[in-house]
Design goal:
Length: about 375
């Protein structure tokens, strides 16, 4: 079979998401399972969005609007740009794949940091092979080392991914540092700012959205998603903002009808009010602070986070700990696939979910340390 396969595909490693609740229920015969593995919003979506989804089901026999006309216009208005600055995708993952296909030429490379979102790597290797992907070390605080990335920009480095705040470390780069980095990047390169967790940043005044750089004509692409704070992970809707010339190129590789009718309608309705977004951010901030303290009380190293998750280091065998948690109905995320084999990532859930996780984790750690 391998002789039939594109050799680049054989170099890729399949993405391993957090286990579904149903799998753990079946495997261990459990009735109560909490999933804190995929950085989802644990609140149910608001009534207006739920009603919009139900209304759209009456049109489900028809293809969706391939141009995403109404959604693009609302996204543009929301971000203070024109509609020709916006492209919509089936989650930001699809847009990552699109932009690599559209802009990476033979012999060119994608550049980013280690310990970040693994889809940059797999999407690059699938198209251009392992040699086309380059990652630099993080700094001692588990942040993108912008000096190291700048030093790695050679003649072949074409697309540069900056994830801010970063997944899975939760760390943030201040606005001035990112702005200065973009100013150093040659004009014939592309900087991608993955802002999937932008809404959770504690101090928006010290956060670079990238919109000013786009307005000045820079080759900057900003990625945003409805999967996190808006609670639409199951509908797969994301978008990119960039200057019109970049969006026009991305439209050449965008699959037709790529975002469902239901996804478009739900995302559109989500932008009609900031109440749910703001409530989600406030609740996450409070629950994250408590969860951080609970993890520290277990004498674990925890990384301060500007997102809706926490990275922590259990100081025990990760595989054994993960199995014990699964057996007790707790799904979190081992970080070996992100290049941090001694760490785990836990999403910030509702207070009762976090408390159940902490109690289960505490028992598991005691058993493994005996």
């Amino acid at each position: 079979m391998e002789s039939l396969v594109n050799p680049h595909v054989l170099q890729t490693t399949p993405y391993k998401p957090g286990k579904p609740v149903e799998d753990i229920q079946r495997e261990f015969g459990l009735t109560r399972v909490i999933k804190l593995a995929s950085n989802e919003n644990m609140l149910p979506i608001p009534a207006n969005v739920r009603q919009a989804i139900c209304d759209e089901l009456s049109q489900i026999q028809y293809y969706p609007d391939s141009d995403n006309y109404f959604l693009r216009r609302r996204i543009a208005e929301y971000n203070g740009v024109e509609p020709d600055h916006v492209i919509v995708g089936a989650g930001s993952v699809e847009i990552i794949q699109m932009l690599i296909r559209a802009f990476l030429k033979p012999g060119e490379r994608v550049l980013t940091s280690e310990k970040t979102f693994s889809l940059y790597k797999s999407a690059t290797i699938e198209l251009a092979g392992a040699a086309a992907f380059v990652e630099t070390p993080m700094d001692r605080d588990l942040r993108f080392d912008l000096e190291a990335i700048a030093g790695a920009i050679d003649a072949a480095a074409k697309i540069i991914f900056i994830t801010n705040p970063n997944n899975p470390t939760g760390t943030l780069l201040p606005a001035a540092a990112v702005r200065a980095f973009i100013a150093r990047v040659p004009d014939n390169r592309i900087v991608v700012l993955d802002n999937a967790y932008q809404e959770y940043v504690d101090d928006p005044g010290d956060y670079l959205t990238g919109l000013d750089e786009i307005g000045r004509g820079k080759n900057v692409i900003v990625l945003r998603t409805f999967s996190k704070v808006y609670g639409l992970a199951g509908l797969r809707v994301g978008y990119a903002l960039a200057k019109p010339e970049i969006i026009a190129v991305l439209n050449r590789v965008k699959p037709p009808f790529n975002v469902t009718r239901v996804g478009q309608r739900a995302a559109l309705e989500s932008l009609q009010s900031d109440e749910f977004r703001d409530r989600s951010v406030r609740l996450n901030r409070a629950n994250k602070a408590k969860l951080f303290s609970q993890l520290e009380a277990l004498r674990l190293r925890v990384i301060p986070s500007q997102t809706n998750f926490l990275l922590f280091f259990p100081a025990v065998d990760i595989a054994a700990l993960n199995l014990r948690l699964l057996q007790q109905g707790v799904i979190i995320r081992p970080m070996g696939g992100f290049g941090i084999p001694d760490a785990m990532r836990v999403s910030v859930g509702l207070e009762e979910e976090n408390d159940f996780f902490i109690a289960t984790l505490g028992r598991a750690l005691q058993e493994l340390k005996k």
